[in-house]
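Whiteboard transcription, Tuesday session. T.W. wrote the C-alpha cells on the left side:
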C-alpha cells in the first residue's frame, strides 16, 4: 500500500541535519543543497518515497510507455498533460506486471483516461485484466464507473515467449512465481535492453527458475528487480509470500551478466534508514560474491529516480 512519512519522521530528519550542520553557514541555496546531497546519508536528507509501482520508459517512437498503474500514476498523468500540451502524442502504452490492487490502484486517478482525445492500450499477460480494472471502479468501491472514462481504451493479451514490436521498441514478457501470476517484461531498442521484474519469488534451491531468469536477464543494461526482503526474511517468516530478496537479485544479475541492478518494491514497513541498510548490505554482498565478473552497479530506487540506458 502507499505509505507517507509521519510528521515526526520529517522532524527527525530536520533535527539530524541541523545537528550535522552545527556551527556551519551556507553562502546560498546551492551550498546548502550540496551539504544535503553529499554529506548526509540518503535517509537523513531525503526520502525513498512511498508510491506504489509505476514507472515510465522514454524512447518509444510516439507514445508514452508506462509500467504498472500504482499510486504513482496520478502524478505521471498530471505531468503527461504538460508534455501533451507541448505536442507529445496522446497515446499511452501500458505494460502490466499483474493485477493486484497496489499495481492498478492509480488508474481511476489517471487524468488522461478522462481525455476523449487520448488513446490507451493496456498490454498484459492476463486475460482478466479488463475485468480487474472495471471491478475496482464498481460503485461499491469507487464513485466513478469505468465506463465514464472518455479515452479510447483497448486491452491486448500478449503471449510469453513471443516477440512484439510496439512503437519502435521490442517487447517480451515472462511469467513469474507470484499469486495469480506476475510477468517480467523486457524492452530492447538500439542494442540496449531493460528488464522490469517485480513481484516475483526466487528461491535459492530452484535451479530451473535460476536458469530461466538468467536467460531472460541476459546482459541487460538495467534490471529493476523485486528486492522486498532480506535473504533471511525470504526463507523464513515470509517464504511463499511472492517476493524476493536482495541476494537473489544480485545472484541472478551476476549469472546473467547484467550491468546494473535497481533494488525495487521496498517493504512498506521499512523506514528510510532500513532501506539505506539493505542497500549498503547489497553493495557489500555484490562485492564479496563478484569473483571474476565485471562489477554490477547497484542503485536503490526512490520516487522520481531517472536512469539512462
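and on the right, the sequence the group agreed on:
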Amino acid at each position: 500500500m502507499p505509505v507517507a512519512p509521519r510528521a515526526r519522521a520529517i522532524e527527525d530528519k530536520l533535527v539530524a541535519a541541523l545537528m550535522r550542520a552545527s556551527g556551519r553557514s551556507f553562502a546560498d541555496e546551492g551550498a546548502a543543497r550540496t551539504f544535503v546531497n553529499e554529506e548526509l546519508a540518503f535517509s537523513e536528507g531525503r526520502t525513498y518515497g512511498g508510491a506504489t509501482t509505476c514507472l515510465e520508459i522514454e524512447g518509444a517512437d510516439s507514445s508514452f510507455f508506462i509500467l504498472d498503474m500504482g499510486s504513482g500514476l496520478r502524478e505521471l498523468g498530471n505531468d503527461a498533460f504538460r508534455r501533451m500540451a507541448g505536442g507529445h502524442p496522446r497515446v499511452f502504452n501500458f505494460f502490466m506486471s499483474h493485477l493486484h490492487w497496489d499495481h492498478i490502484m492509480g488508474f481511476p486517478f489517471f487524468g488522461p483516461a478522462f481525455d476523449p482525445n487520448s488513446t490507451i492500450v493496456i498490454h498484459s499477460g492476463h486475460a482478466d485484466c479488463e475485468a480487474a480494472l472495471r471491478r475496482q471502479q464498481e460503485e461499491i468501491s469507487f464513485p466513478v464507473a469505468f465506463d465514464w472514462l472518455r479515452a479510447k481504451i483497448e486491452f491486448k493479451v500478449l503471449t510469453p515467449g513471443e516477440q512484439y514490436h510496439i512503437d519502435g521498441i521490442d517487447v517480451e514478457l515472462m511469467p513469474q512465481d507470484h499469486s495469480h501470476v506476475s510477468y517480467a517484461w523486457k524492452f530492447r531498442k538500439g542494442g540496449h535492453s531493460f528488464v522490469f521484474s517485480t513481484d516475483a519469488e526466487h528461491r535459492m534451491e530452484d535451479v530451473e527458475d535460476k536458469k530461466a531468469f538468467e536467460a531472460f536477464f541476459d546482459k541487460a543494461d538495467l534490471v529493476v528487480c523485486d528486492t522486498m526482503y532480506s535473504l533471511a526474511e525470504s526463507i523464513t517468516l515470509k517464504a511463499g509470500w511472492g517476493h524476493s530478496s536482495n541476494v537473489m537479485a544480485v545472484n541472478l544479475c551476476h549469472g546473467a551478466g547484467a550491468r546494473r541492478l535497481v533494488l525495487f518494491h521496498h517493504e512498506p514497513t521499512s523506514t528510510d534508514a532500513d532501506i539505506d541498510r539493505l542497500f549498503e548490505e547489497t553493495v557489500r554482498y555484490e562485492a564479496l560474491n563478484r569473483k571474476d565478473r565485471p562489477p554490477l552497479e547497484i542503485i536503490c530506487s526512490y520516487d522520481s529516480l531517472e536512469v539512462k540506458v
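Someone added at the bottom: DSSP finds ten helices and twelve strands in the chain.
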